[in-house]
């Protein structure tokens, strides 16, 4: 096989190895549902082109130890980028799925001279510190608060980035970087990250509720992102117009600011822990929990997913309190046959920048 002639089955095996770290051929066959012979043939092909490498030895119940396989970390690199009106977050991931560099640029990105140049400059700055990745950059994926109409180019981007609308970001950025560039909705990216690198026992189907500057959602069905007819499946934010209160970070920020609370500079700031018990924060959590419960009740009625995930850029202390408050909600008294929400789990990704991490996971899954 040529180095990048990967089928869906090759990618499935790579995904299992990235999640586990390393597996023997027999363990990989058991996890994938393939025969050991098929796994041996496909992994041999990937070993020959340098996508896999042998690692430690696994002692089986009988017979000699088996040699484990793992993705070759230096076979290539991918970059996930998340952009909002006040930040650009970049996460560089190696071929084994490990985050090797991460940075966040803060500024006013609502109006820029060139969207592609702004992003390319940020990417080149990060890659200048990682020369091995600069030479082997396989793909870039950009996560945006965007909606689509069936094509690869967004037809709508959140108001904070309205000046970015109508720009063929993928093509322009690809021309500057010399590699493929994908553009995807931020909630979809976060859900893909959860699917491939989240909890130790992954769910093949779940609904992901994303809370960032706004709110969004994504639907994973049978281990794949379900984008729907136009690419907007799961866009739960469309159920609450901007004339209504929206349980988002911007909404929380406005409520705390109106109450005169001191606001930390970033969502990762540890000072959010002290704020979560303030009266204004508690009022916001209860209101937001009620709004989110009604949205998730609708999701449950329509899709009945096995589980729900809650993630995004909301500060971690607020995310945990919000999860508990949502699960404490009860159906309206006039519903004589209420539905029960499936478990609502917090995202288990190793970073708060779940959209950027998921964007990197999306790019990696394509390589």
TrEMBL record:
A Pfam family hit: ROK
CDD domains the record matches: ASKHA_ATPase_ROK
Superkingdom of the organism of origin: Bacteria
Signal peptide: none
Family statement: Belongs to the ROK (NagC/XylR) family.
Protein name per UniProt: ROK family transcriptional regulator
Organism lineage string: Bacteria, Pseudomonadati, Pseudomonadota, Gammaproteobacteria, Enterobacterales
